[in-house]
Every structure is written in structure tokens, then in C-alpha cells.
Fold this protein.
Amino acid sequence: MHRRKAEINLSKIMKTDFLVIGSGAAGLTFALKAAAYGHVTIVTKGEMNECNTNYAQGGICSVTYAPDTFEKHIHDTLVCGAGKCDPAAVELVVRRAPELIADLIGWGTRFDKTPDGRFELNREGGHSEHRILHHEDLTGAEIERALMEAVRKHPNIEVRERHFAIDLLTQHHLGEFVTRHTRGLACFGAYVLDLDTNEIETMLAKFTVVATGGCGNIYSTTSNPVVATGDGIAMCHRAKAITENMEFIQFHPTTLYHPGEKPSFLITEAMRGFGAILRLQNGEEFMDKYHPMKSLAPRDVVARAIHREMSKRGEEFVYLDVRHKDPESVRSHFPNIYEKCKSIGIDITRDWIPVTPAAHYCCGGVKVDTNGETSVKRLYALGETSCTGLHGANRLASNSLIEALVYADQAARHASARIDKVDFQEGIPDWDFEGTQHAEEMLMIIQSKREMQTIMANYVGIVRSNLSLKRAMRRLEIIYEETEELYNKTKPNRDLCELRNMIATAYLVIKQGRELKESVGCHYNMDYPQEQA
Ligand code: FAD
Ligand code: SIN
């Protein structure tokens, strides 16, 4: 952490009971739950709906009716997680899911129903049953809409858009030397950059919630929107919280092959649950060689199989074929995908869809307990930023939204029960800074970002090796040093802070990948080839 002497834009101080960083499913749900107990301030770096949540397609998992059972959902989650799940987290999320779905519906979320009035359930890779509630193929946007409306109406919740959290406040800011082992390490809020005024505010909070989503943008090809830059993971790491399982970056097998488009447009796995089949460019089906569940195998298996087939043939995509299904039904189940593909000349009821894998989800993150609290007191990490233990080495499809909701509720209960015992921390200094801003610096930031994304894509992708991870680390170190140098002489700005956060997140992915001496789930290392497709 660097504090520099004041030069421009005086800082200001504000106080709030609960400071929530991020306005996706995790942050908004926490806010709605906590607002009954105190004042909530949400800061978010873009517009409120700029988040991964808004892009979710397939849906949200919950055991709803027979023949599904909690035991089956638990079993599928554990199998997919490849032995690395925390069974207590799995039990918690699966068994509490129906309650949180009821809350979502109470806040106005509309899920699709069958003509006889039951919820219509999707099925995706690794699921033994249909258990995914959805709203067409736009489930995330519908959930985000309902949560935003409820938040906007709530008198105890204040939302500050275009506010970028830079760093978390701990005893470090009182001049103490802290490490990951410091006893009683606690969080007192955050420094937040107002992107309109360029002012850095000291936001003091009794409880701070980091719900900043994932880090897909550390890769050159990702399904994640541009906001997913690992900010929360990096901030928590700098604040000396513990992170884990970062090597388990999940690649979604089927994003639309449309070179140059960012983010990569997702073709939901629910389409394979609906009956779509993966084919090579020559039309051959190939998934039967890799897994008994074929195109509906767990996501890591399918992504690796596609990667292997493409590498063997020097090809950049495979096809997804849904032409054999009733066209009207395809259009009504997947209206968003139908329209998107049509806009680039693909009629999915008649044509094969070219697809290719892309970085999609961070299964690891900031380690939390069953209350969502990190190793730093009064600091919670929720949603994709966190590592609860639910996903293990590979997330079961559509388990992340429900995880975000369940842990938001756990955290709100835990924090609100302690609110009367906690005071605002005195003595935190304003952020002091001086520095320059030159056009040349912006160019450097863009170039370093591209270099980092290429390193991650080339050496830390679906398939890795000890050598590729070593190379990635060496190359990243150079970019790290150059970026720190730039940061130390430059006024804080969003692009530079994001680059810094992406480098820190990429570092954790590589470091934790090098420490794991096996291939498991989303981490496939060619030097440990056991039991993997
Ligand atoms: P997000 O929804 O990403 O929200 C993070 C928020 O933090 C954003 O508002 C962002 O602007 C803000 N933020 C970030 N950094 C800062 C900062 N420094 N300062 C201030 N604000 C900041 N999961 C499912 O369960 N089912 C699905 O069907 C599904 N489909 C998906 C499809 C796509 C294309 C993608 C990308 C993901 C999908 N996922 C799905 C995963 C799921 O959407 C995410 O894991 C989940 O929405 C994460 O929610 P969140 O609240 O943790 O983060
Ligand atoms: C999808 O709809 O395929 C994405 C689901 C998920 O990532 O959970």
C-alpha cells in the first residue's frame, strides 16, 4: 500500500454501518438483508447493472420438486468439485437455496413456468436432474432488475455509482505492521475513488463487504464483462486476507466464436441440457470418447475435450447443433441467443453454431467461513470474489448465483447481530497522493494489460504444465514491476488500479497453480496427467 503526499482534490470522510463494494447479486442481496439493521452504502464502479450477474443465462439452482432431492444436488456438486469441495458449504447452500429463491420471488423476480403452473426447470452439465430455475435465457438480467428495484426503493440503502474502491482499511493505515498472521486484524472500511470528481473518499464502516465479482479479464478471451478485473480479490490480498483455490479458473466450453467480440457471447449450457450436440467441424460427434454424459459432462471435461480436439486439428472452434429440436421451442427457450446469432447471420434452428471455450468463472477467491467472513475481522467476501468451499476444483453449472444469495444472507445475519458492539475506527488518515497523468501512461496501461492477458491465455489456460506456469510467472513479474513503478508516480485512476488488481489476481492463479502438484478439476497440469480427460 502506498500513501503519498496530498497535492490535489482533498479527501473527505464518510461513515456508514455497512459498506458494500459491488452491485451484483451478492452485494445487492446483502444490502437488502442488512438494511433492516443499519445504514447501507453500496459503491459500484460503473452503472449498477454492470456486473457478471446481469449476463447470467442458464439460471439458478434449487431443488424444487420430485424426482429431485437435496441429496442429489449435494451429490452432483461434490462430484463436479472433484474431491475439493467443503461438504459443510455444499450442505448449507443446497438446503438453504429454496428460502433464498422465495426471497428473490418476493423481491419481484419472475421465473418461467410450465402451462400447469410449475417452475420450468433447465438442466446443465454435471446435473443428474432438471433443477435450474430460469427466466428465458436472460435469468441474470431478470434477477438483477428485481434486486435493483428493491434496493432503489429501500430508504436505508444509498447507492453510489461510478465509485471505485481502491483499497481496504486495516491497522496498516494506523501505522502498524501487519501480516496474514496478525491476530485481531480487522477492516474499517475502504478508500473509494469518485470517478466523476476524482476525489478519494475515506469510507469508514462498521462492516465491509467485498462483492466485486470475478476476474475473467485476466484472460484475453472471456465471457465476463469488462468490470470483472479481480479488484476485490486483489484488495483483500493486499489487506492480508487469505485466498485459496485460485488455480481453478473455469472455462466455459461454449461461447460464440466471433473473433474480435468482447466479451465473448455465451451460448448457455442449458442448450445442451435441451438436447444440443457438440460436433467437430467435419460434423462428427466426439464427446462420447470423453465422458458417459457426453455433451452434458461436467464443464471442465467438456472444455478440455474441445480444447484437445481443436489442438489436434489446428482449428479454432467446434460446432453446437440444435437443428434437430422443434424450431419454435428453440426460439422460445433461447430468444436472446436466437436474436444474437441471427444478427451475425446464423439461424440456430437451421445452422450449426460455431463455439469455443473462454475464461468464465473463478472457483477460488477470498477464503471465508460459513458466515462469509474472511480471515480479516469485520470483512466479508461474497459471491464470485469469495471461496466458500462450495465449488471445490470445478463449479457445478448455475451454482454460483445461489451461493451468492445464501452467503449474503449468512453474512447479513452475522454482521447485524454484532452491530451494537462495533464502533467506527478513529485515526484513519486521508488518502494522500501526488502524481502525474500523461497520455503515455494510458498507452502503457493498455499494452501491459494485453501482455498480461496473452501470458495467461498462452501459459495458464485450459491445459498447463510446470514449465508454462514458470514462464507465466517470470513474464508477469516484469509487468508487475513496471506497473508498480507507474502506480507510485501516477494519480490513481480506474485503468491503472484495475491493471494492478488483474496482475495481483493473475499472480495468485499462477502461484497457487504451481503449488498444486496434481491435475484436478479446472486445473489440468500435463506433468500430472492422472484421471483427466
Ligand atoms: P457481479 O455480479 O460480477 O458483481 C460485481 C460488482 O462489483 C459489479 O457491480 C462491479 O462493477 C463491482 N465492482 C468490481 N470491482 C469494483 C471496485 N473496485 N469498486 C467498486 N465496484 C466494483 N452463474 C449462475 O449461477 N447461473 C448462470 O446461469 C450463470 N451464467 C453466467 C453467464 C455469464 C456470461 C457469466 C459471465 C457468468 C455466469 N454465471 C452464472 C456466473 C454468475 O453470473 C456470477 O458468478 C455471479 O453473478 C457473480 O455475482 P457477484 O455479485 O459475486 O458479482
Ligand atoms: C450457462 O448458462 O451456461 C452458464 C451457467 C453458469 O455459468 O453457471
User: Anything to note?
Assistant: The mean pLDDT is 95. Residues 317 and 356 are 5 Å apart (CA to CA).
